[in-house]
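Appendix B. Raw example, untouched.
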Amino acid sequence: MILEGQTAYYSKYMILTDYDNKKHIYDYKTLQEASTGFTLGDSYNAVEDNNGQIYHIKDSNLYKDNESVLSIDTSDTSNLIKNPLYYDTITNTYWIGLERSINFYLKNSDNSYDTTFHRTIGAAKGESFLNFAIKENKAYLVYIEKDDPIANIIYFTKDENVSLTEQNRIQLSTIGVSGEVTDMAVLGDGTVAVLVRSVGVDSETEGFNNMSLSDKGTVYSRGALVLLSSDLSTYEVYGWKDSSRTISATGKDTQTGTLTEWTSIEAYIPEYEERNSYFYGPLKIVAIRPKEIVIADCGANFVLPDYDGKKNGKMYAHNRLMTVDLRNFAISCKKEFSESELKFKNLMVNGGGTDSYTIKASSSYNAYEGEK
């Protein structure tokens, strides 16, 4: 899909979310935090309009920069979906996504769109409707059934009577990727961009949330940018690491004691040398330009202990901004943050050490050095 017809929308900012949900506004060009005169705090997802102004929800109000433009009913505030804001760059219109009486529901300052599309009875609020996107008369929704965690991407047409009619749907399994959908956007030419994140220990959705890593276990830290045609009939996948590799310990444990002897783990993770061609775990489309998008990417790589060199193993966390060139679909790293600068996720894996990064072979061993 060559995007020669894409409308020239330019993100001026990148809205980056750290591990405790605090939003940071970065200037696209300088890669430094911008001075905007307002803060987003821990509000819901924020969106930038054609003029570089930022819509965000806080304290039951929708703000444009620091100006309140809409008071949101308390009943609606409690029913906002996971990522409730979207901005249509073509019509210059913001949209709010809600769940009302188990149905998916859309509204802006002028219109309300009641729909008959509802979550599975028995699913908890917030579990089914994850992301949505709108371009003119087309709407897209990421939806999960209660007993089937594989995400569906659903395409609707939107008529003048503010109702949605389903036209097509596609599952992640059909596309050939797995994990969770973390973001979605419609590009200027109508292409639907979807981010898929596969991160965890023996699970693709757990996300290194202090799970225990064990010898011979499986770890995932990968993801994909999926570009679908506007009717969801065709798609291309970029940055996805499909195959696994074995990460092995060096040497053999000759100590006596009760610590785990590490031999190997199976890893669906790019090699360090491949890091600029694949994702570790994409989270958010943070900027859209005429011929590129920028994606916040977060995951980890691993090294097992070196018994010969008397070194413990280690988890290497990565917090990056990745650029995808929409002319040739080349992926590159725009910036990698140190964890003291910005940490998208608080990655923790228990490998037997005293911290969340060490894969322990011995209390007398040194830490592993170098990059991974």
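End of appendix B.
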